[in-house]
Design a protein that fits this description.
37% of the residues lie in helices and 29% in strands. The chain is an alpha/beta fold. It has a single domain, classed as Transcription Regulator spoIIAA (2-Layer Sandwich), CATH 3.30.750.
């Protein structure tokens, strides 16, 4: 998985490309932690180019969301229609499916 990160109008944007499987979750977790920092900022995570999210990927998403909540920040995640699943609702990650897929 590839993480493309940049700052746009005060928002940390992370665009993910590739499957968020067990191996990539373990590899990318340190980068996510670095990008989030103290969790006090605004974050947008774009999953529109992620065809698959494993349970280990969901664990990292939950961990990120909790760190941002504790830090007083905000997180918005963009998912395609295929990602609207019970798993995402169960971890209560706010998602926006308006990306048109």
């Amino acid at each position: 998985m590839e993480i493309n990160a940049n700052q746009e109008q005060g928002i940390q944007v992370m665009s993910l490309v590739g499957s968020f499987d067990t191996a990539s979750a373990a590899e990318t977790e340190p980068e996510f932690i670095e990008q989030i920092g103290d969790g006090s900022g605004k974050f947008l995570i774009d999953f529109s180019e992620v065809p698959y999210i494993a349970s280990s990927g969901l664990r990292i998403l939950l961990k990120m969301a909790q760190a941002i909540k504790v830090g007083g920040g905000r997180i918005i995640s963009l998912f395609t229609q295929q990602h609207r699943s019970r798993s995402l609702r169960n971890i209560r990650l706010r998602h926006d499916t308006r990306c048109g897929r």
